[in-house]
Every structure is written in C-alpha cells, then in structure tokens.
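TICKET: design request
STATUS: open
ATTACHED STRUCTURE:
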C-alpha cells in the first residue's frame, strides 16, 4: 500500500500537468514592444509534391516605428502525405490524401 500511494499521486500530478489544448494561444504574443524589438512570423507552404517553402518574416521595431522589414525563404524537402476523412460543404465525406505540414519549434536566446 505504501508503494502504490506515491505512484498514484505522481500519476495524477502528471496527468493534471499535461494540457494539450490546441485552442489555447498562451504562447502567442498579444502585443509587441515597439520601442525596440524584433517581430518574427513563421509560415510554410507546399510548392509541389516534393518541396515545401519555409518563410521567416522579420519586422525590426525601434522607437515606435519599423526600421527594417524583410523575408527569408528556404526550400526544403516536402513531408509525406497521409490519408484522412474530409467533408465538403454539402456534408459528404470521403477519404482524401493530405500533405503533412512542418511543425515549428522556436528557441530564443
């Protein structure tokens, strides 16, 4: 009994600490400090069946105005496709092939 109680408590803490709610935008900035900051927007798009384009858009802010704005584009290998069920405007469903999107993970130093 003494061994089971700590394991149960650890399991409950682990489950309650994990919040995988995709609708939660706590990590998205609400405002930008326009007195001195770099604002970065990341996006991707499918060029064709083999290639994707990753775009990084930069806005450099200083004293309330943009002093520089530019894009950096990279072409990378496209990810494979997967099958899923899709629905059209009429409510009809069918299996469709969809390309996977890259996920973005950002490290700030």
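STATUS: resolved
RESOLUTION: sequence designed for all positions
ATTACHED SEQUENCE:
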């Amino acid at each position: 009994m003494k061994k089971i109680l700590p394991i149960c408590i650890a399991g409950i803490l682990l489950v309650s600490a994990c919040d995988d709610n995709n609708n939660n935008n706590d990590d998205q900035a609400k405002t930008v400090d326009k007195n001195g900051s770099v604002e970065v927007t990341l996006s991707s798009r499918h060029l064709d069946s083999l290639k994707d384009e990753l775009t990084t858009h930069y806005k450099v802010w200083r004293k309330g105005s943009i002093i520089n704005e530019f894009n950096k584009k990279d072409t990378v290998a496209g990810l494979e496709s997967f099958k899923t069920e899709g629905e059209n405007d009429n409510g009809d469903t069918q299996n469709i092939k969809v390309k996977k999107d890259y996920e973005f993970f950002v490290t700030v130093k």
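CLOSING REMARK: Strands lie at 36-46, 51-62, 65-77, 81-87, 93-99. The chain is about 15% helix and 45% strand.
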